[in-house]
């Protein structure tokens, strides 16, 4: 008996743009330049230009498996580069322009990229980062047809032939991207994405209970393309033929409000602080964003007061989620329209991701629901080992330790209750800052709240509260009063520090490393 079989159709990322070009050729990618001028292109034309990227890179000597770096904002040129690099089997190494030149240079040195594609305004940073990197042979400018200060523009190279560099003629398990973690809790580590992993991630994201985009949507990707694949939106939008709106380097409230109104944005994604800026702009200047129906938030906890404020002012549903660079990045998402949703819950995992709650030694807790412990994950989109490291990042059973403390409720919703490295040890006992932050952050007068440990000669560490308020009249006593009876009395912070602006890490999260450096000593 001869069994039948299915075609060997590789799960490679070029297929998303090829699909959009063939079946949704007129759907648009809209992007804003540094001067906020809008640029439009249809998927069919973007596909042609991305094929030109592959041809240009081939002429520059880039081959399969080589790493091509990008230091760029969310723009059309960056999107073309993504598909042109990945489609030909090279590896797209995204770099975060909010890091220092030394940090970027270190990452470039590790990846040994020969080509760096740069947004024009980031050229000085690129040149500083590229010093003493002999492997880096070319720095080329995106989104322009004119060179600047001796740096060539990439557009003229894209326009020239060939257009016939093969796409997708490689195993789906080969690397597609490289992204370093933010380093907010330690030294940055490189995460290598694969075509198969990102393809599977996209399939999860397309589920109705996750992002669930359709061809009728216009998706605003505020989350940067240099941050964990922009949460996969540059793959999900063309996969269904949705309009994709890229804001460029600007993410202020006025700019986002204009894009949402002008482009009929229906869904958007970004960290909570971005949406706070949009709300504050509308509160100050007036106006509405009537087409916006849903906002996917992640990257940092969503304070209840901020969630209520966003939903009330924007008229859009906030969909909480949790993920990591190491997860490609989405791990869980709240069910859209769920009447039982809460700001502190990050939803359930979709098929392909599994969760495990363990003790500090990695032993599974006998009761997985309702118990707090250390969160581990595994699945086809989860890191197995970090870039350049021989030792696996997983345990013997394939579980990856996220470093998060978490619990899972009876409905299967994940709640991140803290970071293991953020715990404060006071008098030999542990204090979880996240519990304090959640209570204080729920106050309507508070925009952002953080708790860190400050060195103490008697107790070792004591907690202090740092806040950015939206109402300067609120007193220290008013900020601390809600903690009484809800946390142990010795958990209550010894001091309140008011900040004009909470320091944010390059990915938009509260920068606790900076807070500890500035306020962690006596």
Descriptive overview:
The protein is an alpha/beta fold. It has 14 helices and 24 strands. It has helices spanning 14-23, 43-59, 76-87, 101-111, 123-129, 155-159, 195-205, 233-240, 253-263, 272-285, 304-314, 433-441, 476-480, 512-519, and strands at residues 28-32, 38-42, 67-71, 91-94, 115-119, 138-142, 152-153, 175-180, 190-194, 218-221, 243-246, 267-270, 294-297, 317-323, 330-333, 353-358, 373-379, 400-408, 414-419, 424-426, 429-431, 446-456, 460-469, 495-498. The strands form five sheets. It has an eight-stranded mixed sheet with strand order 2-1-11-10-12-13-14-15, sandwiched between helices. The chain has a seven-stranded mixed sheet with strand order 7-6-5-3-4-8-9, with helices on both faces. A four-stranded antiparallel sheet has the order 16-17-18-19. A hairpin with a 3-residue loop joins β22 and β23 (460-469). α10 (272-285) crosses α11. The model has no long low-confidence stretch (mean pLDDT 93).
Count of individual helical segments = 14
Strand residues, percent: 15-25%
Helix content: 25-40%
How far from one another are the termini? 78 Å
Global mean pLDDT: 93
SSE-based structural type: alpha/beta
Major beta sheet, specifics? 8 strands, mixed
Spans of at least 5 consecutive residues with low confidence: none
Rg, rounded, reads 23 Å
Strand order of the main beta sheet, please?
2-1-11-10-12-13-14-15
Globally, the shape reads: globular
How many E strands? 24
């Amino acid at each position: 008996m001869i069994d039948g079989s299915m075609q060997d159709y590789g799960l490679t990322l070029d297929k998303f743009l090829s699909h959009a070009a063939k079946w949704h050729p007129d759907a648009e990618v809209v992007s804003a330049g540094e001067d906020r001028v809008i640029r439009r292109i249809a998927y069919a034309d973007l596909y042609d230009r991305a094929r030109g990227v592959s041809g240009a890179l081939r002429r520059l000597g880039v081959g399969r498996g080589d790493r091509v770096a990008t230091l760029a904002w969310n723009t059309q040129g960056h999107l073309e580069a993504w598909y042109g690099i990945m489609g030909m089997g090279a590896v797209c190494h995204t770099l975060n322009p909010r890091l220092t030149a030394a940090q970027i240079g270190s990452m470039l040195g590790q990846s040994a990229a020969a080509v760096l594609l740069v947004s024009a305004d980031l050229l000085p940073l690129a040149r500083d980062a590229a010093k003493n990197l002999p492997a880096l042979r070319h720095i080329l400018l995106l989104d322009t047809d004119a060179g600047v200060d001796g740096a060539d523009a990439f557009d003229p190279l894209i326009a020239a032939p060939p257009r016939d560099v093969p796409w997708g003629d490689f195993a789906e398990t080969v690397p597609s991207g490289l992204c370093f973690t933010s380093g907010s809790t330690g030294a940055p580590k490189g995460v290598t994405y694969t075509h198969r992993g990102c393809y599977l991630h996209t399939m999860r994201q397309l589920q109705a209970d996750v992002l669930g985009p359709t061809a009728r949507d216009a998706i605003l990707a505020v989350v940067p393309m240099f941050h964990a694949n922009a949460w996969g939106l540059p793959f999900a939008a063309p996969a269904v033929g949705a309009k994709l709106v890229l804001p460029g380097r600007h993410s202020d409230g006025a700019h986002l409000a204009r894009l949402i109104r002008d482009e009929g944005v229906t869904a958007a994604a970004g960290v909570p602080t971005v949406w706070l800026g949009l709300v504050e702009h509308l509160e100050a200047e007036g106006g509405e964003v009537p087409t916006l129906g849903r906002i996917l938030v992640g990257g940092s906890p969503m304070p209840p007061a901020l969630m209520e404020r966003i939903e009330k002012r924007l008229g859009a549903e906030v969909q909480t989620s949790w993920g990591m660079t190491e997860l490609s990045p989405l791990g869980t998402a709240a069910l859209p329209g769920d009447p039982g949703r809460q700001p502190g819950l990050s939803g359930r995992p979709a098929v392909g991701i599994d969760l495990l709650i363990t003790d500090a030694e990695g032993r599974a807790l006998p009761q997985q629901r309702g118990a707090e412990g250390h969160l581990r994950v595994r699945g086809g989109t989860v890191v197995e080992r970090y870039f350049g490291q021989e030792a696996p990042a997983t345990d013997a059973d394939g579980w990856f330790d996220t470093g998060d403390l978490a619990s899972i409720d009876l409905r299967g919703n994940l709640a991140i209750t803290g970071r293991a490295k953020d715990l404060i040890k006071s008098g030999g006992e542990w204090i979880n800052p996240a519990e304090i932050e959640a209570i204080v952050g729920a106050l309507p007068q508070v925009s952002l709240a953080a708790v860190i440990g400050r060195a103490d000669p008697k107790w070792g560490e004591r907690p202090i509260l740092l806040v950015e308020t939206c109402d300067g009249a609120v007193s220290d006593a008013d900020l601390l009063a809600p903690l009484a009876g809800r946390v142990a009395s010795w958990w209550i912070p010894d001091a309140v520090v008011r900040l004009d602006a909470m320091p944010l890490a390059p990915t938009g999260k509260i920068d606790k490393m900076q807070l500890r450096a500035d306020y962690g000593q006596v």
